[in-house]
Amino acid sequence: FRDNPFLKEFGISIGETFELVNARVLEPPRLKYNGGREATPNRGAWDIRSQRFLNAKPLQKWVVLCLDRNVSPQKVNDLQSEIARSGGNLGMTIGKPDTYKVLTDQRTIQRDVQTFLKEKKGYDLIIVILSDKCNFYGMVKQEAELNIGCLTQCLLTKTISRDPIPPSVVTNILLKVNAKLNGTNHVLSHRPQFLKGNIMVMGADVTHPPASNRNVPSYAAVTASHDLDFFQYNTACQLQAPAMETIVGLEDIFKRHLVYYFK
């Protein structure tokens, strides 16, 4: 920037060294797993290969739906086998999956997915493999979890592209799956004093469309924990006026979260 003519024109100069400030590193909390075993995060990550979920939920009825024609049958079989193996290591009871389904006809994909999901309504989970370049995620989620009532876990093909599929990749998938099944992966080993008692942790945010889309509404979401370990969350979402940063009706949303918490 020192030789930038535009900055010079306006008499602007930029220093070459960052400002130094005092800081401190917070000690990461220790996490408790099944059997009282603990893990300590380091730089935001920790190894759970030798751990078992604190409350592992069974996955009995499940199936893989593949929407990418480039995924081989062997790759799907490898994924299913690794889910069963890694899930067992984490304490989950994994049943035998149904025969996987491949749907790739772009002309009828939405109707075909809808038909398949209706057939599998009542299953514990449907794992959906999506092409890296597809735009079917929104359609799958809307059909499955809003219109029909099926729990899904979506994966991109690139996530499982390596041979063999790394166990760490499947473990990360199962972290999400167990939570979606209302299980508990881990809790704080020692709860700080300020978190003792009936505490509800909340988070809120508003997502806005690009400034050029003045007629597109903003999207507000408020989450709140409803268990004593801050692991299970309930969500309230709504559309509101474009560019509105303040969440409309926050008091009513807060009341709904409180009612859900005390149930």
From TrEMBL:
GO terms for molecular function: nucleic acid binding. SUPFAM superfamilies: Ribonuclease H-like. Gene3D superfamilies: 3.40.50.2300, Ribonuclease H-like superfamily/Ribonuclease H (3.30.420.10). Signal peptide: none annotated. InterPro entries: ArgoL2, Argonaute_Mid_dom, Piwi, RNaseH-like_sf, RNaseH_sf. This is Piwi domain-containing protein. It comes from the Eukaryota. It comes from Callosobruchus maculatus (Southern cowpea weevil). Residues 125-229 form the Piwi domain.
